[in-house]
Amino acid sequence: MEHMMSKLSENILDKFSMDFLRNQVLKNAYGNDDTIIAALDPRILIAWYLFFGVIPWFVNDLPFLLGSFVLVMVTTLLARVAGLVLFLFALGVFSQTGYLFLATLLFGGNTSAIAPLLVLTLKVATISLASVTVFSGLDPDRLSNGLMWYGCPERLSFSISYAYRMLPMLMEEFQNVLLSYRLRGNPPAHDTLTGKVRYLIYQVKIIMESFYPLMLNTAKRSRTTVEALELRGYRYAAVNKSVKKLKLSALKVTDNDLLFLAISALWVALSILFSTLL
Amino acid sequence: MSTLQKSAATQSQKLMIFVLSMSLYGLATLFTELIPKFQVGLVEFSVEYFLFIPLTLAMLFDPLSAALGAATGELVFSEIMLGQFGGLGELEKFLTVTIGVYIAGRLVKDPKNRMMVGLAAITGTAAQLLMGTIVDIAKVQFAVEDFEAVEGLPESVFATEGFAFCNDLLFSGILFCLLPTLYLVPKLYGKIEPLLGMAPRTRESLASGLSPKAALVCVIGFVCAVAAELAATAGMSLIDWEAEWAESGTALAVGMVCAAALAVIVLLVMKKNKERNAAC
Fold first, then answer.
1. What is the DSSP letter of B205?
2. Mean pLDDT of A135-140
3. Chain A touched by B238 (CB under 8 Å)
4. Cβ(B82)–Cβ(A28) under 8 Å?
5. Which chain A residue shows the shortest CA-CA distance from B236?
6. Residue B155 has pLDDT above 80, yes or no
7. Is A277 on the interface with B (CB under 8 A)?
8. Which of B15, B131, B216, B239 is buried most, with the most CB atoms less than 10 Å from its CB?
9. Closest by alpha carbon to B69, among B228, B220, B196, B169?
């Protein structure tokens, strides 16, 4: 128990190395502009994602699911996604279906439960890898332009662009506030078990309390942002058709995009053929 | 001017609240996504819900902007940025977070009344968790083939989901939603509003109390979330039909392969030609 507790507090403290997180997120957003996936047209990629993000959920055909899984795995490799994201993907897949399997065993189910759960895992994995490819492989600006072309609300594209730019700053500020709280605070001794529990509670409390100054600071910042946007006529530009047209004129479908689509279609058709032959 | 500010937030102030709620809650959900969950037996200790941030903001400002901002922030920061976007499931999450936070924000008439703040915080959290649980159970039932046939699976789904609901509400709900909200709302009240250029919410302000219209909007939102699931079942039968039709005709599949292969070849040749022309 004591070992677990120390592991828990160590885990939480380890993950709060902000520099690591910031680097990973930034690398994921801006680190891979030169891959094949990043060069594709965002509209084509989103359409591609709509297929691989929705269809596998409804199909129970094993060859088709395996084929789609292999395809999205290849595209994920091509997109050169950051390690942290892949780790989270693995964790997410396990937490969605792995624990369900354990619970099934607990309630007297036998190994016959494995097959449907494997199919479920395959579906979840395919869908999340497709989303990793599209949303991590694309530049945030290209992604938000693509979404805008499909008629997503301007506010969503604004949020995406804003989030990617503000996040490093917000993280740094949170870290500073947290560190200043730690400097002023007096953490309880943590050699005994109760001490460790108290130490953990103390850490969590500090995180909660540091949101108070952070909220005030962010309020100031968001007022500045919105006022700057107002000065440039953001709310009128957001609904103006000609502004949108101007913004989206940079998007262009090339042969590479069509080739990407055609190869995907070929692979899917092959997997369907394979399943009919079986 | 002052009367206008008192009655309701202006458009740009609503945008400020949206941006504020989005960035704060987005940052927090990013952390929760990154902190690994810790399990002792079946009891899960996770810092799952930083829901106190949008709850606090919804109680102090315009509830709808804060709720929408929080849901968008979660979507953009923790789902899209980390590439965890889950398609249809995210719509359900978006709607449940919006409704939960909105209900809590509308319930609070006077932020200085601690009793009311606490009650609203726990109600909003419970509403969000309950809707999530219902949709989760439905999702597993639709996705797994022969759900009833697998021995032990239905019971285990109901048990784990029900247990997760109670666990989340009692552990995360009280520790991470109720207590921080009770701490933050009175402390921020009257301090954070001037930073956005507004008057603090009072008993007389317009945007308080749960009107029938607001309740109706919430119900419609939840119906939408369930409708997404129902659409999923309808889609399932549609695709099943398609799969049958594909099975009956291997020739058709061969045709599809040929067409796709042809497309690839034509595109490759076109690309080659273009490159040659460019080189000349």
1. -
2. 78
3. yes
4. yes
5. A58
6. no
7. yes
8. B15
9. B196
For a pLDDT cut of 70, what percent of chain B falls above it? 68
Q: Which residues from A are below 8 Å from B187, CB to CB?
A: 212
**How many of the other CB atoms lie within 10 Å of CB of A224?**
11
Residue of A nearest to B195 (CA): A220
Instruction: With CA atoms as reference, report the closest residue to A101 among A92, A112, A90, A87.
Output: A112
SS3 string of A235-271? Answer: HHHHHCHHHHHHHHCCCCCCHHHHHHHHHHHHHHHHH
> What are residue B40's phi and psi, to 5 degrees?
-115, 105
pLDDT grade, residue B5 (50/70/90)?
very low
What residue numbers bound the domain in which B39 lies? 2-241
Tally Cβ neighbours within 10 Å of residue B266: 13
More confident residue, A209 or A3: A209
**Alpha-helical segments (H) within chain A:** 2-15, 18-30, 36-39, 42-58, 62-79, 83-93, 99-106, 114-137, 140-149, 154-184, 193-209, 211-231, 234-239, 241-248, 255-277
Q: Do B186 and B53 lie in a common domain?
A: yes
Q: Which of A208, A228, A209, A87 is nearest to A166 (CA)?
A: A228
Residues of B in contact with A88 (CB under 8 A): 33-34, 82, 84
**Is the distance from CB of B70 to CB of B53 less than 8 angstroms?**
yes
In this model, does residue B241 exceed pLDDT 50? Answer: no
State both tokens at A250: 């940079």
In eight-state DSSP terms, residue B189 is: T
What is the Cα B279 distance to its own chain's centre? 52
Same domain, B195 and B63: yes
Structural domain total, chain B: 2
Q: Are residues B107 and B177 in the same domain?
A: yes
Give residue-wise pLDDT tens across range B131-141.
878 877 776 66
Q: Looking at the complex, does the CB of residue B222 fall below 8 Å from at least one CB of chain A? A: no
Q: Which stretches does DSSP call E strand in chain B?
A: 38-40, 43-45
B137 and B162 in one domain?
yes
pTM of the model: 0.75
Question: A18 and A171 in contact (C-beta within 8 Å)?
Answer: yes
Tell the burial category of B178 from Cβ atoms under 10 Å away from its Cβ (0-12, 13-18, 19+).
buried
**Are B178 and B267 part of one and the same domain?**
no
Q: Compare B3 and B75 and report the one with higher pLDDT.
A: B75
Give contacts of B86 with chain A, Cβ < 8 Å.
127-128, 131
Taking an 8 Å cut-off on Cβ atoms, the answer to whether B76 and A159 are in contact is: yes
Determine the average pLDDT of the residues in B108-127: 88
Residue with tokens 């989030």: A163
* Structural tokens at position B161: 């989901």
Comparing CA positions, the residue from A141, A168, A170 lying closest to residue A157 is A141
- Could you give the 3-state DSSP secondary structure of residue B49? coil
**Are B192 and B254 contained in the same domain?**
no
Return d(Cα B126, Cα B224) in angstroms, integer.
19
